Amino acid sequence: MNTDSVIKIKDLHFSYGGPKILEDIEIDIQRNEFIGMVGPNGSGKTTLLKIIMGVLTPDRGSVKVLGNPPSQSVKEIGYMPQLTPFSRDFPISVEEVVLMGRLGKTSSIGLFNKTDHLAAEKAMNDVEVLDLRKRSIGSLSGGQLQRVLIARALTCEPKIMILDEPTANVDMKIEKDIFELLKQLNETITIIVVTHDIGFISQYINRVACINRTLVCHPTSELTGETIENMYGSHVHMVHHHHED
């Protein structure tokens, strides 16, 4: 395995007992890449993420994450789901939400130690929400909440971050701020972002993984709107952006 590979998938097939959801999936993601993952609803994006995180096992094929089976590397992955798994009305502070990212890393029952608190403090500082640490999550704006959820994913000190629609339901300014933040984090962390807004993020990502049961990976500058239309049968904005070295 290439020493710079962090996720290597070969000949992957998966179904839930019926028609194939994923077929002939192959991808090699390198250290510190920023990958955009796109595809229509039901295309298999979420299923592939669950396989990478060890939640699902493929019917066939090889999956290596940081050189090991996904179940052995899951603690090295920070995950931000599209939908928050808690009610914003629940009486919990920003700091308590961020500390949840340590569950399974050093504690499975919420008895956090000094190392956990320092990791949470660093994550909050990195995403610029440290001053909000005692605030209730219900009092946050949409952009602030997204930053808190990114901090939670960062608190496990991951080598890989997977974010599912991290800018859903936020305005364009907040979206830009969040992707600027992710670009900074990408200096030391491999990032995979599931998104529908390819045109906007093309200035940040290295490659686009297009999924619709099968997978085709394109360098950002080579992907066109026509390519996506041919694959998915729907109109999308062309992805083309000049990258400075």
What does this structure look like?
The chain has 245 residues and is α/β, with parallel strands linked by helices. The chain has helices at residues 45-52, 70-73, 94-99, 114-126, 142-154, 172-185, 198-201, 225-232, and strands at 5-15, 20-30, 34-38, 60-65, 77-80, 160-164, 190-194, 207-212, 214-219. The chain has a six-stranded mixed beta sheet with strand order 5-6-7-3-8-9, sandwiched between helices. A three-stranded antiparallel beta sheet has the order 2-1-4. It starts with a strand and ends in a 13-residue tail after the last helix. Residues 235-245 have low confidence and may be disordered.
CATH domain topology: Rossmann fold
Indicate the overall shape.
globular
Helix content: 25-40%
The assembly state of the depicted protein chains is single chain
Report the end-to-end length measured between terminal Cα atoms.
27 Å
Give the structural class.
alpha/beta
* Number of DSSP-assigned strands: 9
Residue-averaged pLDDT: 85
Major beta sheet, strand line-up: 5-6-7-3-8-9
Portion in strands? 15-25%
CATH architecture tag: 3-Layer(aba) Sandwich
Biggest beta-sheet profile: 6 strands, mixed
* Element string (H = helix, E = strand): EEEHEHEHHHEHEHEEH
Low-confidence stretches: 235-245
Number of domains: 1
CATH H-level homologous superfamily name: P-loop containing nucleotide triphosphate hydrolases
Radius of gyration (CA) equals 18 Å
**What is the count of helical runs?**
8
* The top level CATH class name: Alpha Beta
